[in-house]
Write a structure and sequence with these properties.
The protein contains five helices and no strands. By secondary structure, the chain is mainly α. The chain has one domain. The longest helix is centred in the last third of the chain and has 49 residues. The relative contact order is 0.10. The model has no long low-confidence stretch (mean pLDDT 90).
């Protein structure tokens, strides 16, 4: 059975994060790349100060699916790698933690490039 309240929390928190991004697009001159980096850094910051885990417990994938979740995974991997392997673990832990997602993104990008031909806008 599924928990309707959890689905509602995921939808509301994820939607709120996306709304913040849209507000930044509309009200500032920030490029989308800078907005993405801002959200990534927010995920890293929240993990470093210990606030991301309680937020993840409350909102589930509503907070882990957006780019903030990627920043959280990078920081979590670097912290765990640093505890187990020292400085080398700090440098490699983030990539180890996110390797699955990166591999899927690269593979799908390659497949889409094979299936579709890109054209510049006229």
């Amino acid at each position: 059975m599924f928990d309707v309240l959890m689905y509602l929390k995921v939808f509301l928190i994820g939607g709120f994060i996306c709304m913040l991004g849209q507000v930044l697009v509309i009200t500032t001159q920030m490029t989308s790349a800078r907005i993405l980096v801002t959200f990534l850094i927010m995920g890293v910051f929240l993990e470093v100060v210990g606030a991301f885990e309680p937020l993840k417990q409350f909102a589930g994938s509503g907070v882990t699916v957006p780019i903030m979740g990627f920043g959280y995974s990078l920081a979590k991997g670097a912290i765990e790698g640093g505890k187990t392997n020292g400085l080398l673990g700090v440098l490699t832990g983030g990539l180890t933690e996110t390797a699955g997602g990166i591999a899927v993104a690269v593979t799908m990008a390659f497949l889409m490039a094979l299936l579709f031909s890109s054209k510049t806008k006229k």
